[in-house]
Amino acid sequence: MFQGTIDLDAAAPVEATVMSDVLFERGVYWASGRAGVVSLVAAHKWFNLAASKGRADAVAMRREVAAQMSEAEIAVAQREARAWIGAH
User: Fold this and answer.
1) d(CA 19, CA 21)
2) For residues 80 and 45, is the Cβ–Cβ distance under 8 A?
């Protein structure tokens, strides 16, 4: 059981501090095939979302993944990213 104190004045919203890291990690997950399957569409989507939250290295990763994708696959990934933004 937690027995410390929380400094609410110094606390920052989770989204402001870790959201881009979580999104980037999802991109790495799908690009690396950790689930046993590589999905470049999913990787591009998550790197795109991480980049939109300010994660600079996500731009390079998205570009690297996109170099291996067709234009149709990139379009699907972009649609999925927009849908995710709309839902969250």
Assistant:
1) 5
2) yes
Q: What is the pLDDT of residue 1?
A: 57
d(CA 23, CA 70): 22
Query: Can you read off the two tokens belonging to residue 47?
Result: 């790197």
Q: What is the pLDDT of residue 42?
A: 96
Please give the C-alpha separations between residue 65 and each of 5, 40, 44, 56, 81, in angstroms, as whole numbers.
43, 6, 6, 15, 15
Residue 52: name the closest of 13, 80, 24, 12 by CA: 24
Q: For residues 61 and 29, what is the distance between their CA atoms, to the nearest angstrom?
A: 12
- For residues 26 and 58, is the Cβ–Cβ distance under 8 A? no
Burial 11-35 (b: 16+ CB within 10 A, else e): eeeeeeeebbeebbebbeebbeeee
